[in-house]
Amino acid sequence: MRENRPLVALTMGDVAGIGPEVIARAWGESPLRTLARPFVVGDAEILRRAVAWVGGTAEVVSIAEPETAEPSFHSIPCLDASDQRLDDVPVGRVDARAGRAAYDFLITAADLALAGRVDAITTLPLNKESLSAAGIAHPGHTEILADRCGVRDHAMMLYLGPRDELDEPGLGVIHATLHVALRRVFDLLTIESVREKIALADRSLRPLTRGRPPRVAVAGLNPHAGEHGLFGEEEGTILAPAVELARREGIDVTGPIAADTLFVRAIAGEFDAVVAMYHDQGHVALKTIGFDRAVNVTLGLPIIRTSVAHGTAFDIAGQGRAETTSLIEAVRVAARIVEGSRLIAEPSR
Question: Which CATH superfamily is domain 1-151+301-349 in?
Fold first, then answer.
């Protein structure tokens, strides 16, 4: 195994979903352990159950400190991080205890990263209904982490990495708005909010482009990017001014471009990042291209966080057949960001 592998905390997510099984199944696949030094933040007993469900043989070893984690094919280090009793949480159902525990796992991992005790965190899926049932006001990982880290300027990027280990950066989609009703999108978009997301894409992609200025494109909001006002005025009144402001700041940005043609160009390699206006505009495109390889990355945090792009999959939870590709890709991307950040910070290395 290569030296200086990043220490990555894997949060278990909602224990009623497939998160524990994904970790257990992925543990037997060497990329997970050659890319990084992973350990689990969750519940050791739930993880042991998941190992049995997938027919694994690794021993789950409880640890008290992340620094003592010694991951291997035969050993899964697990840091218990919740006082919730989880052994009787029903699989595949919304449960407040699972929601609270998923929150506890995430906060523990985030605090470790903020303290510099881990290099990155990679999260397994939580369930928004279970979070709500537990009295958690935030709708998902991104908002919880932004609050915990005390940041306002943040965004979720859906990222599709290259298929090999070349220095190609892949393609990231940053969302100007995220978990909001579609009817609210028009009210939330402003020149400044879009400019902020363009700037966030520019600086956040640099570890993945190894310092090269990313090529950013801005998607239109309306059909045909408004068709010069025929189908909407937001491109002219909000998006184009935001692009112009970003250009004045030295950012390599283009747009607004009609989304139906923009993604064809981006997939072909013309752009490194796309700023999408709302959740499904970006998600549908990238998940259609590479659902199993897609990874979520939270931008704007003082810590590195990646996540699988799938949900809790309650319908197959407990059956031991969850796919592992997204988790392995999420760890791969976390490791690339850590390594790219080190290169930027120490260019002479």
Answer: Isopropylmalate Dehydrogenase (3.40.718.10)
